[in-house]
Amino acid sequence: MSTPARSRRLPQRPPPVFVLLGALAAAFFAIPLVGLLARAPWSDLVDLVSGDVVLDALRISLLSSLAAATLSLLFGVPLAWVLSRVEFRGKSLVRAIVTLPMVLPPVVGGAALLFALGRRGTIGEPLHDATGFLLPFSIWGVIVANTFVAMPFLVITVEGALNNLDGRHEAAATTLGASRLTVFRLVTLPMIAPSLRAGVLLAWARALGEFGATVTFAGNLQGRTQTLPLAVFVALEQDRDTAIAISLVLVAISLGVLVVLRDRWWSRA
Amino acid sequence: MRRAVAFLGLALAACGGDGDRSVRVFAAASLTDAFVEIASAFEAEHPDIDVELNLAGSSALRVQILEGAPADVFAAANEPAMTALVDAGEIDGAPVVFALNQLTIATPADNPGGVTELADLARPELRVGLCAVGVPCGDLARDVLDRAGVVASVDTDEPNVRALAAKIADGELDAGLVYATDVVAVEGLASWRIEKQTNIVAPYPIATLADAGPDADAFVAFVLSPDGRRILTAHGFGVPS
User: Fold this and answer.
1) What pTM was computed for the model?
2) Helices of type H across B19-158
3) Residues of chain B with C-beta less than 8 angstroms from the C-beta of A239
């Protein structure tokens, strides 16, 4: 990693205790992965992951997680900006509510979505009566559940970046006559770009792995709402080889994206 | 740091139990209410034995036991889950059928879809749920639908029967196939009988694990006793004659 930012730091000899604890922490994450790989049905892997169930789940997972990341970006950035720059009463309550999905068990989040947006929900019922549109048991339900659990990661990442921003550049642009949206687009956004990318990536990763809120709110039907994590869960009940094979697909996608994007995005930062 | 280590030690000690006798019972999710009651009745009769219930889908429990989870008794909602453990040499002796269950058509209490028979599950405008394939109630539902010659228009394959029952009771689904016992246990459900000639009786087998102690045998004996049978019947199960 010879990034300009990092190479400026003097090389340090690591304290032995950090090396030891750090190695233990890394092993803690690596060992379950090794367990998964050791159980993998390598000889049948191609057959297992090219079945209809896996391909359907892959399509729905990619579609819904990308949609959730996009929605998080579209709504999350303005929300983060407001939380960072505007003073209003009850702001800490709003911030707490926005980050609640990060600590809430996803199943509870899914149930709450169902009570609000389901067919007999507070908003869902009048919406259904007026338009006939229903979120649960559809791909839209999967996207809503994914966005619900994913967007907080983007909001807190971007808000943190906005809070740490040196305000002089924005102030200068304003003095020179740029409109507020122009300042945001030409000054603020480029300055928070690394955090924005990290936030999108975190939100996408969280959406890809989403299980509890999805199964509770959107149900589980192959080809319609069954994502890769749901397919793993169902397969675990019948055929472990298939379950492990699907898990490997998830691990491969996640690792691939995290390794490639992280290195590219962070080193540019 | 030292304090953190001490806390960790305390937490581990708390997990280790206090040396009392205990029976770890792995029971199918559909047995939840009946087994909670059976466990407390058994503990009342044997104050020195503690019953620990692990309730989940039969197939999930099967996987847990095969992966080495410590169990003394296994009560399954279908025979394949038990057979898999017998074949793996995990079971002591032969499993015994202790309860019978069957499926019924469940709708929300106000039955908005006007569902009364299996054929209604084929109506595409209705929201219909089943248990997923591989879960006992899901496999049983598909067998019953096959026998009735009905191709259900399914909107969701739920991971377990209680999740399905809850969605029907909440009115998110118009109909689904759940156990007769779930209609007793879950509020807000109406049930519609499946014709006798199409319905299938599901036997629930129970057995002790190969390395279980005598307390496990005592628990199984209690389940099979008149007291155990009375509790099972009160929760909607049939008992073998």
Assistant:
1) 0.82
2) 32-45, 58-66, 79-87, 136-148
3) 134
